[in-house]
């Protein structure tokens, strides 16, 4: 789509721009985004999920009191008379509101891919957009312990495998009840549980010393208590760590920790059956900010999503030997830069009852950071496919005409062939000129990498034939100059070639997987 | 999804509802809507279209002065500091803004399916939602006359045929230059051209006498001038009408009318080549309200979209012998009721230059009223498929287990089979219980019309086998009790049956076409 004239002065004299923190999606970016969405959606559907769609704005009071300090980031609609409304801040609260309003729905697996809105100020510093996509999958309903939780983690791995991230991501996992148990055992006063928990949550970005200082100096925790916490939260592992914790008599004497450890043991057995245990890191430092989690919590990290606090617009080296993400002009606002995870979620059993006093619907879910996934996917594609011209649309056939002196352009004939191809479901275009020149037509086809041309000429038409030409064949190829086919067999001939081409070139050309 | 507890008092004491004029989409409605979107998108892509996505809100000044009187219906965001923004009112102005900002894009075929926002007050009376979907397709760029216009009409017919509306829709068509010529020839003063044009636009809802009264009494037009207009605007036809008008010496002496008639003549020749001329009604009464049209204008009407001014919530009889649309409780706010068209558009060659002084990009486009198309499609499906239980998700296989005394539920085995099926891309579910009862499992599968069950039993597993059972087979069918297959061949066996089932039942079950 070429260069953008950003912040242009338009014909009306005002600045021509999109609002701060928002962007237009077009060209190759749009193609990649659509492919990511369809890849993710396919996995959700494989597990029986359905989608629901809620309004982009909610009653203001629905959002009130759900986001703590971040409530100041909520966009309100102007009071133009009538109800007071706000743009949705996430997809979880609208889902809980929907569940509370539809009391006949006692269970559902739902996904929702949609934009959410946050007045983050300033957006650039935090590397965050004000309008951005979320992709949520949640399971609501009462089921036997840890089975839906295990399936969510299985779905998560299927999605990242389908996106071609094999071996390049880790699911960090912890349990709120274990964390609470640890804090209690270490001697954290009840009223400081949540605030100490959010300090621990910073361990992915800050060293223990800094977190300890926050706990003791800012939050007034006793230094010895902090040190005891420190001995727990630096640990990570798998079944080995689980066993170590289960042998910790002080910890297992705590009811909360004991229940959490039993959950993890059961979960690990399910994850082994699902063959995904090796993707998991049981990580005591994972705490997750949101208050509403009640059980298992998890976060997916990848080499490309490691945190960075630099605001430089120069290319950054990522840790872990990962590929550098090009942080050019148009990506200085990119949410993938400097943010720690590409997906996150957990179990929240009490949120629905905040809306619906009468009933409790246990939920577990995950939110995929599609903007970050997009950025990482795009950089990889740029690195891998630099030699191939990107296709923007899906056109399979470009219909052309040529002729000598007195050539009239064969427009009705081109239109007629287009009609025939469209009727058979073949994606076809022709140049919207009465008398186009042949090079013009080839240029239009090549500009978008259309794989086949159907070429019409007066002599051929008189004989009831035309030519099919595969674009971009090397010199010397026997079909370089095209193949003459009967007009009456055109559809069949085109379909055969398309099928072969798709198997050989098309799939890899359009694939977003590695 | 069952009954909704609308306007419930939630656990927090406030009214649990969505904002006025908005709705949640779920269940079967969501499935139908998604199918309509994918049907339409497929046709767009067949013609080489790409999609772009713009922010849901724009700078307030971008929308200012684009919608005339309707500007009062624009939703503003609250002034929370920073830029003043408004929710988009349609998809055309954001597209024109995007074109103006991306000056390297000199031509594009783009579609955009997204929600737009109008503070219509009150929504019920006008049968209009405040948040609703639009589906726009536009062609921008300089091409030879009437070729892109003809392709848009061809695309329109392909979409309605794909939706199963064959023979049940008409494309009304007119030309702004012919209308202007008629008004000039009849003696309408230059400054009254647009206001008289919008009076003519009401002829689809009001008789001529009423429109004549508006022209003369409200708009001060001379009675004789009005009568002369009356003789023109009641005419409709096809090539016959074109010929009649071309023989009208007074009309063809008018430059504007002459140019418009030449366009229509050329267009008709293209529509004949595209084999869609019989879908067209050349209708002198079609004027279209929006100011920005400069050439061809069109509107698609169907038996189900005829206008109705009644606000009754009882079932309505539609004219033209069409099926009645059930106007039940949940559809009293339905935009398909009492609205005249299911798609409309035209050529607008000057809109982009409103944003970008330096350049003019001619455009022609159409907007599909997807909410109306949804309502009509839904009523037809209800009438046609009442005996079939609607499927909400796409699950192909439900994995079950059964056993005698001491049965442990075979959960790891069910999980293992699920994993194997998922890995082959098969959509599969199992009941998230450690020890589910067999009837429970069958009920869960039947509730959603899952076509196949894979049944595990301890004895069969010991022999390395399991059973595949097609659901809903009649008594006496040889495979009623299921077929025993080797566990090692399960994927293959399931895929074979699924393929056969999809050909026989699946396609028609999931189809939205007639």
From TrEMBL, chains A, B:
This is Histidine--tRNA ligase, mitochondrial. Residues 1-277 form the Aminoacyl-transfer RNA synthetases class-II family profile domain. GO terms for molecular function: ATP binding; histidine-tRNA ligase activity; RNA binding. The keyword Ribosomal protein does not apply. Coiled coil: none annotated. GO terms for biological process: histidyl-tRNA aminoacylation; mitochondrial translation. One of its GO terms (cellular component) is cytosol. Keywords: Aminoacyl-tRNA synthetase, ATP-binding, Cytoplasm, Ligase, Nucleotide-binding, Protein biosynthesis. It is an enzyme of class 6 (ligase). InterPro entries: aa-tRNA-synth_II, aa-tRNA-synth_II/BPL/LPL, Anticodon-bd, Anticodon-bd_dom_sf, His-tRNA-ligase, HisRS-like_core, HisRS/HisZ, HisRS_anticodon. It comes from the Eukaryota. It is found in: Cytoplasm. CDD domains: HisRS-like_core, HisRS_anticodon. Residues 1-10 have a biased composition (Basic and acidic residues). L-histidine binds at residues 90-92, 118, 134, 138, 288, 292-293. It catalyses: tRNA(His) + L-histidine + ATP = L-histidyl-tRNA(His) + AMP + diphosphate + H(+). Residues 1-21, 304-339 are annotated as: Disordered. Catalyzes the aminoacylation of histidyl-tRNA in both the cytoplasm and the mitochondrion. Belongs to the class-II aminoacyl-tRNA synthetase family. Its EC number is 6.1.1.21.
């Amino acid at each position: 789509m070429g260069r953008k004239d950003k912040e242009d002065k338009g014909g009306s004299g005002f600045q021509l721009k999109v609002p701060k923190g928002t962007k237009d999606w077009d060209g190759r970016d749009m193609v990649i985004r659509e492919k990511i969405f369809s890849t993710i959606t396919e996995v959700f559907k494989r597990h029986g999920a359905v989608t629901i769609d809620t309004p982009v704005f909610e009653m203001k009071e629905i959002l009130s009191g759900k986001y703590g300090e971040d409530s100041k980031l909520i966009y309100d609609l102007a009071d133009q008379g009538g109800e007071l409304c706000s743009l949705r801040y996430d997809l979880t609260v609208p889902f809980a509101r929907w569940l509370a309003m539809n009391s006949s729905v006692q269970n559902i697996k739902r996904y929702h891919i949609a934009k959410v809105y946050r007045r983050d100020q300033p957006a650039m510093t935090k590397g965050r957009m004000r309008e951005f996509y979320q992709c949520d999958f949640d399971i609501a309903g009462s089921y036997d312990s840890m089975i839906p939780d295990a399936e969510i983690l299985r779905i998560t791995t299927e999605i990242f495998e389908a996106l071609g991230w094999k071996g390049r991501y880790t699911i960090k996992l912890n349990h709120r009840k274990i964390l609470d148990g640890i804090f209690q055992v270490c001697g954290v006063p009840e009223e400081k549980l949540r605030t100490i928990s959010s300090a621990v949550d910073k361990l992915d970005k800050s060293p223990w010393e800094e977190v300890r200082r926050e706990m003791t100096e800012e939050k007034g925790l006793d230094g010895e208590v902090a040190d005891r916490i420190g001995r727990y939260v630096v640990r990570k592992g798998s079944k080995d760590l689980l066993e170590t914790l289960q042998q910790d008599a002080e910890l297992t004497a705590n009811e909360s920790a004991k229940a959490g450890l039993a959950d993890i043991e059961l979960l690990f057995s399910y994850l082994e059956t699902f063959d995904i245990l090796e993707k998991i890191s049981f990580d005591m430092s994972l705490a997750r900010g949101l208050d509403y989690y009640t059980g298992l919590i998890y976060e997916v990290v990848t080499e490309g999503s490691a945190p960075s606090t630099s605001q430089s617009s120069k290319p950054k080296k990522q840790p872990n030997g990962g590929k550098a993400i090009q942080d050019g002009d148009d990506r200085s606002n990119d949410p993938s830069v400097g943010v720690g995870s590409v997906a996150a979620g957990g179990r929240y059993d009490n949120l629905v009852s905040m809306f619906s006093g009468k009933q409790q619907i246990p939920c577990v879910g995950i939110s995929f950071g599609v903007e970050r996934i997009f950025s990482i996917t795009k950089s990889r594609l740029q690195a891998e496919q630099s030699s191939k011209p990107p296709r923007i649309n899906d056109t399979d056939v470009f219909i052309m005409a040529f002729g000598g002196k007195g050539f009239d352009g064969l427009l009705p004939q081109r239109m007629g062939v287009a009609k025939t191809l469209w009727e058979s479901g073949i994606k076809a275009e022709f140049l919207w000129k009465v008398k186009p020149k042949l090079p013009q037509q080839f240029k239009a086809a090549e500009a978008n990498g259309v794989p086949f041309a159907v070429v019409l000429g007066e002599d051929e038409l008189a004989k009831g034939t035309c030519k099919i030409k595969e674009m971009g064949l090397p010199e010397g190829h026997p079909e370089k100059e095209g193949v003459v086919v009967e007009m009456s067999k055109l559809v069949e001939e085109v379909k055969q070639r398309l099928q072969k081409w798709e198997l050989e070139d098309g799939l890899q050309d359009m694939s977003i997987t590695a």
